[in-house]
Amino acid sequence: MNRQLSLFSPAKINLFLRVVSKREDGYHNLSSVFQTLNLGDTLTFSLSREDQLSATSFLTTFPSTGELPLDSSNLISKAVALFKRNTGFTEGFNIHLEKRIPMQAGLGGGSSNAATALWACNELAQTQIPVKILQQWGAELGSDVPFFFSQGTAYCTSRGEKVHPLPALREQQIWVVKPPEGLSTPEVYQRLQVKTTAKKILERDLDNFLSGILPLFNDLEAPAFEAKPSLYDLKLQLLQGGFESVLMSGSGTAFFCLGEGKFPKELKGTIYSTKTVNRPLSNWYAV
Ligand code: C5P
Fold first, then answer.
1. Which atom of ligand 1 is nearest to the CA of 30?
2. Per-residue pLDDT for the chain (287 aa), expressed as one digit of tens each?
3. How far apart are CA 159 and CA 20, in angstroms?
4. Distance CA 1, CA 23 (A)
5. 12 labelled catalytic
6. Cα 151-152-156 angle, rounded to 5 deg
7. d(Cα 202, Cα 95) in Å, to the nearest integer?
């Protein structure tokens, strides 16, 4: 019988994000703690003669259904191609994506899908590639992909692909707000003015985090606010609602809010009630 495998593909947030320096290869060195959430997509896989990718979109804000790319530019297709190239596996994969993670949001949806696809291919093809190797392959697909092979809480450095696992946080509610406008990651990085950060400061950030003091900042907020000034207004609106902290995730445009607060009635965008989620050592994420 043709086995079907349905996997959860979680979104991530950056609990803090420091851009440490600009690199010669055009990327930036980062210092950031990433965390997976129970907001996510579902990917269903089965073996078939040819590779096929279809999708159902549950997205309510930009970009809407029609704009989900399902061709070879989709990171899922790229992950499948990479898996087949590296393993010599010749059968096809039939994949259906249920899209819930907003795009152009800084929530890592595409990267999470790519990691989930590598995990699923390895399961269905029974190739038993070690997770560490899948993680290395993931780095070729995008800087954020390797993180998803951690257990869901990790300190990430270099361009994001060096993953240092951290203990899971206490499960807590996190509100995620996605405004209608989106931003592309390269655009945000291009606007960034980088001042190289001393190692001592990076160590202090991580020490603070580990002792329970969240160093809540994101160096990508300033260039994102410059590109889309309405994002700054949204942050102020959310802070006025009483939340303890409001921070943009990754290169935006989604924000996450910690603590108790009220959302203004006139708020434009989609509100998601989420929780942190972590995966057990030998299984993929599940909710
Ligand atoms: O690695 P990924 O393909 O996700 O990166 C997309 C773009 O984001 C890069 O081409 C680069 O412009 C920018 N980026 C960066 N520094 C990083 C990660 C991404 O400048 N650490």
1. 21
2. 679 999 999 999 999 999 999 999 999 999 999 999 999 999 999 999 999 999 999 887 655 445 688 888 899 999 999 999 999 999 999 999 999 999 999 999 999 999 999 999 999 999 999 999 999 999 999 999 999 999 999 999 999 999 999 999 998 999 999 999 999 999 999 999 898 989 999 999 999 999 988 888 999 999 999 999 999 999 999 999 999 999 999 999 999 999 999 999 989 899 999 999 999 999 999 99
3. 10
4. 50
5. yes
6. 100
7. 41
Q: Which of 78, 99, 144, 178 is catalytic?
A: 144
- Rounded Cα distance between 152 and 147, Å, is 8
Q: Which atom of ligand 1 is nearest to the CA of 143?
A: 1
Spacing, Cα 263 to ligand 1 middle (Å): 32
Q: If you measure from the C-alpha of residue 31 to the centroid of ligand 1, how many angstroms do you get, rounded to a whole number?
A: 14
Taking the C-alpha atoms of residue 21 and residue 30, their distance in angstroms, rounded to an integer, is 7
Contact 120, 53 (CB under 8 A): no
Specify the ligand 1 atom closest to the Cα of 19: 21
Counting ligand 1 atoms within 8 A of each CB, the residue from 14, 27, 112, 194 with the most, and so the one to mutate, is 27
Give distance in angstroms: CA of 253 to centre of ligand 1: 16
Which candidate, 234, 238, 134, 229, places its Cα nearest to that of 179? Answer: 234
b/e string for 62-91 if b means 16 or more Cβ within 10 A?
Answer: beeeeebeeeeebbbbbbbebbbebeebee
CA–CA dist 129, 106 (Å, integer): 29
**137, 143, 183: which to mutate for ligand 1, most atoms within 8 A of CB?**
143
Residue nearest to atom 21 of ligand 1 (CA): 159
CB 75, CB 110: distance < 8 Å:
yes
